[in-house]
């Protein structure tokens, strides 16, 4: 497996959410770890957003 961050990696190309999460989870080694579909990236993004909103709501409720 060749590293993703080679000199010719990013010539300002757009990547989708799934590729971004794949790079995050694989520490920059593989941009197709989670597949090529867009639904996996959306799932992780929505899951992270929901977890953050739930944490903020919990803090607000418990601080009252």
Descriptive report:
This protein has one domain. The model has no long low-confidence stretch (mean pLDDT 80). With 64 residues, the protein is mostly helical. It starts with 16 loop residues before the first helix and ends with a helix. The longest helix has 24 residues, at 39-62. The protein has helices at residues 17-25, 39-62.
Question: Main β-sheet, in a few words?
Answer: none
**CA-based gyration radius:** 16 Å
- The number of distinct β-strands equals 0
Distance between the termini: 52 Å
* Count of discrete domains: 1
Shape: elongated
Percentage of residues in strands: under 5%
The parts where pLDDT drops under 50 for at least 5 residues are none
Q: What percent of residues adopt helix (DSSP H or I)?
A: 40-55%
Can you count the helices? Answer: 2
Return the structural class. Answer: mainly alpha
Q: Helix and strand succession? A: HH
Gist of the model:
This protein is mostly helical and 64 residues long. Helices cover 52% and strands 0% of the residues. The chain has one domain (17-62).
Secondary-structure map:
Blueprint: H1 17-25, H2 39-62
Helix pairs in contact: 1-2
Observed structural traits:
elongated, 64 residues, mainly alpha, 52% helix, 2 helices
């Amino acid at each position: 497996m060749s590293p993703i961050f080679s000199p010719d990696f990013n010539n300002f190309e757009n990547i989708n959410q799934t590729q971004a999460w794949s790079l995050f989870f694989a520490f920059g080694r593989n941009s197709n770890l989670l597949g090529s579909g867009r639904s996996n990236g959306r799932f992780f993004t929505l899951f992270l957003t929901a977890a953050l909103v739930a944490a903020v709501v919990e803090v607000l409720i418990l601080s009252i």
